Amino acid sequence: MRLRLAVFAAFASALAATAVMAQSDIITQREALMKEFGRVTRPVGGMLRGGTPFDLAAVQSALDIYAKNAKALVPLFPEGSGGGETEALPSIWQKKAEFDGLLDKFAADATAARAAITDEASFKAVFPGVIRTCGTCHDSFRKKS
Amino acid sequence: MDAPLSRSTVTTPPATVLAWDLPTRVAKWLLAALVGLAFASRYWGDGGLVWHQWNGLAILVVLVFRVLWGLVGGSTARFSRFLRGPGAVLSYGVAMLRGRPPHFLGHNPAGGWMVIALLGVVGAQALTGLFTTDDIAVYAPLTNVVSDETMARASAWHQQIYPILLVLLGLHVAANLAHSFLGGDNLITAMITGRKPRGTFADRAPATPGSVARALGCLVVATAAVFGGIVLAGGNPFP
């Protein structure tokens, strides 16, 4: 009887540990994708302000990463993954459709901009509109530092 | 023949005395305007916050100027003249509660510390701004010389100091309106014209102005300190 209880307890705690690990794992994954957004956007921000010279290839690879990572991010916010070390606000799961909609919009805008941006002028006209969604989403769904 | 006329010119004292020299007034209103513009450029400026960053740099220059002017400027602008101990602040507060506060030509003991608080908080806001990022595409002049953690912390402070500044500004404006329209000591007019009606003041009157040439010297030093400091630290001072 006592043995059975011990076995049950061991199983239960292993299960719980796996759940916690899976959760911290999913948080690490989505943070890595977000950090990649930041890494590729930083030089492009310099191009927008004119501090760094315009580089079409760098802009295009940034847009590719936006589209790819935004799609990959949608399934990384399952119900119940709002605990632990995360900057994700509970509002994500209260307004899941709106949150997913912003990621979809970001991916679609990036794909459209990939085709529309051919030179510096079209870059300066189109790019700010693409990354505006970042701020919109952070304002409603990311923990204020 | 003209003796009576000249005697009357000599014996009639001017109706007002100098309270604030020109550089002090210009720095004061420039700083107020720049802080207002920094607010506007944050919410209605360009997406890259270039305007906002220039605002911040200009604020830093005016702040450094004001600190220098507090050491070598006109008498009422000097820190050593208007900063008084807690006893003086307390007795001023008590006199105020009794409804008969003494009039000061320069800052009163409470107002003097408000000046320091405002300079300190605006300075903290401007300095943290140098290390702030929106974590998307905007990176302030000194973000390239610090770690991501420092950047994140500075960005957080830049947001947290803002409401403190709003509270201080509210107190500052309310106190000046109250003195000017209820207390019979029009501080707002004095800060515009530089003069106050002749009267009995608790501090020395009239004020001794600092020269415009010395003010220009302070301005050059302040500009060099801000832009040179950013370059020396390894940053890019032109947003």
TrEMBL record, chain A:
InterPro entries, sorted: Cyt_c/b562 (IPR010980), Cyt_c_II (IPR002321), Cyt_c_prime (IPR012127)
Signal peptide segment: 1-22
SUPFAM superfamilies documented for this protein: Cytochromes
Highest taxon listed in the record's lineage: Bacteria
Keywords tagged on the record: Electron transport, Heme, Iron, Metal-binding, Signal, Transport
Name of the molecule in the record: Cytochrome c556
Automatic annotation (TrEMBL), chain B:
Membrane topology: Multi-pass membrane protein
Subcellular locations according to the entry: Cell membrane
Domain Cytochrome b561 bacterial/Ni-hydrogenase residue range list: 20-194
Main location: membrane
Membrane-crossing residue ranges in chain numbering: 26-45, 57-77, 110-131, 161-182, 212-233
InterPro entries listed in its UniProt record: Cyt_b561_bac/Ni-Hgenase, Di-haem_cyt_TM, Hydrogenase_cytochrome
Residues in coiled coil: none
Gene3D superfamilies: Transmembrane di-heme cytochromes, Chain C
Keywords for the protein's UniProt record, in alphabetical order: Cell membrane, Membrane, Transmembrane, Transmembrane helix
PANTHER family given in the database record: BLL0597 PROTEIN, NI/FE-HYDROGENASE 1 B-TYPE CYTOCHROME SUBUNIT
Protein name (database record): Cytochrome b
